[in-house]
Amino acid sequence: MNPLNAQAIFDTLKGKFGDSVVELQSEGCSPAYVVVAPGSIKEVARFLKDAPALSFDSLMCLSGVDYKDNFAVTYHVYSMANRHSVGLKAMLPRENPSLPSVDDVWPAANFQEREAYDLLGIVFEGSKDLRRILLPPDWEGHPLRKDYKYPESYHGIKV
Amino acid sequence: MTARPEALPTQEMTINMGPQHPSTHGVLRVILTTDGEVVTRAVPDVGYLHLGLEKIAERLNYSQFMPFTDRLDYLAGMNCNCAWAWAVEKLAKIEAPERAEYLRVIVSELNRISSHLISFGSFTADMGAFTPFLYGIREREKVNDLFEMLCGQRLTYNYARIGGVSGDAPPGFLEKTREFLDYFEPKIDEYNNLISYNKIFVQRLANVAVISAEEAVAYGLTGPNLRGSGVAFDLRKDEPYSVYPKFDFNVCVGSGERGQLGDCFDRYMVRINEMRESVKILRQAVDQIPEGPVMAKVPRVFKPPVGEVYFRAENPRGENGYYLVSDGSANPYRAKIRAGSFVTMNIFEKVTRGLLIADIVAVIGSFDIILPEIDR
Amino acid sequence: MEALAISLIKAVPFLGAVPVWAVALVLMVAVAAVVLAFALTFEGVGSLVLRKVAGDIQVRIGPNRVGPNGVLQFLADGVKLILKEDLTPASADRPLFKMAPYFVFVGSFAGFVVVPFGVGLIAADLNIGVYYVMAVSSLVVIGILLAGWSSNNKWALLGGMRGAAQIISYEIPVGLALIPAVMIAGSLSLQDIVRSQGGLWGIFGWNLFHNPFTFFSFFLYFTAAQAETNQTPFDLPEAESELVSGYNVEYSGIRFGYFFLAEFGDMFVVAALTTALFLGGWNIPFFHAETLPWIWGNLLSLGVFLGKAFTIVLIMMWVRWTLPRIRVDQLMRLSWKYLIPLTFFNLLGVSLWLLVFNGKGIPAMIASLFG
To answer: Which of B17, B100, C261, C353 has a C-alpha 20 to 30 A away from that of B262?
Structure first.
């Protein structure tokens, strides 16, 4: 067991991926998170999981956040072997938010990606199965977006 | 046996298991594709109980959201209450008084016992033995009595507060808790005698839906389901929060005692053994609880600093995590609820391939899912 | 029945003008009514006892609202079942759907005809009694299959298929486990079988104690019969936690009531057969029922018989509320891999025993040692 702190994890990632790893955000954040370019999220995830010093084998939580100007997907990962954790954050543009899926790195991601897709409309490319999960397949809009307008009715049923 | 396709055309049958079915623990819907009794594919379809809690949270302030967490896992409302309080306190850098932390641990562990009792009972009822269910209910009533004494509620407690708990333990509560523990501990052996090692019961569960340790971790299983696969990981021990470090208890893991490691029986046994550990924690907590206030000075409406927190607590149904993003206002900017049952359903399709219909029921029961937590 | 009719005509003068067949017919109807009345009463009381016993086993009270201590609960249940709407699903096969409960009901009730309640208390002492029970109880499988198929519901279909597979599989061990008793008595008539167990103070003559193989046979029969009549832990056709309610899921009202009654009917028939074949039937311990006056002999033997049968029913209820349900593959394995070979072995054992010891049982041999 060899827990690393967030700074060490960030340095390792920075050394490996260069500009794709943008910054470390630790102020007021627990766990601290590393901002990653969305396009390289899958490679970073793969590295985080496979590098022995990191071995982040457990994806605790995957969340989409609507920051009004843009979207973010936050990954909270944990290492059972090294007992350390870190957050990853990928900032996405407001228009057509999409990034590669990590569900073949961490299978646990699938349902949570579906949830982020369902509620926020973030598209995870290459996902095994990206369908709406909590809402009906023909639901319009993504309710967790800050600019979501509640529909008047659904199939003639007043909402 | 292979049927001759040209002579006897057969086709797979699609069956809708749920959303109304006695053994799907609520409104889970599983779309079964079966070849006779053999399930070739079981796809869970969740969302029938979507409450929109995360959206609601954005419109309420931190304290106002507390009663909603009860509805998250209605069999372990105390655990969800406390987890929310701990998460918000971490975000807002509030410290609850020690007595409040002890009370939180006491109610969490009591609720863990009562939740595991329901899990044990409904699981055996799914297996066709209805009697143990009522034995579980009998003891759960006593836990509910204790909670009623504490906060006036028996199901949706709303007991924790940001910065403490809603009220101190009334006189006699701790004694009653002690009495309950003395009464309850021998009952665990009674359950084991009643059903746990029953030959039919073991045969129904052993070697069914085996999940290896690697798979369990990769698929994000948590809590008893993860430990059932032999991974000794318990947030109370490995990422300690509150006053848990002060207590001495063991992490129960599956041992593959009646079949392969990680089968339904192991997941079941972990819950049974965990009740014993909870009793252990409770005894220590009841003995050590200090005097003092139960509520820190927290304004009714407070504004945590800008930042974000992911906090997770060990709930009866696995990791209950809250990802809170604060923009400095009184309401959470984003509150993502990570629930054990939801992530667990991810592995459902994988482990149920090739099982019998009766085994599907066993798998659902052994995961101990609860629907409001899945659909939130 | 005809003989009885003739003797009745002789005994009662004013019946002289009535043709024999008419009297026989009236008698048949009367006997059938009595048997049915008994069966229904048993079922009503049985359901109440079942619920009370279940309550006791499950640390709860059980029904206690209707009548003193809830003893009239079964009447309320019956009234409810009759008054509820009898729904037929729109997509069901209507004629088959409506017919199915009768098959199950008849299959279970026809068994009552040959149950030897007492010395002279039997609706029809058929010389093929055991065979008859086996045959009519097979009607149940048709009913279950029809119900499952005609409901046009996949759960019901699965239940019906399970039921058919299960009942057919378990008829073999049931039949084979009954044969030892038939061999010892040398008759298929249930009265003859009961009489053959009357010796040695009416206890040690029981087939149960005849020899080790019959002792074993009793348990084999009891297990297989539980399965054949779909009792827990073999209640797979209606497994409510898996198949919702199995073959009867679409039934309501009195048609559901028929299934419900048939279940209790089956329970009693199995208990009665177990009693008659292995536990000495109506033989009163230390007395010869046939030497007593007619009325006392019959009443006493009826009491003894019902006592034994109800004890078996209680044991069945106890099992029902204790054990979990086994899985469908385990069920088939139990029948084909264990019960059938064991019953065959047992049959062979009994045959050899009867051959070697000239039909004498162990108690009889011990008795002959002491003169």
So the answer is: B17
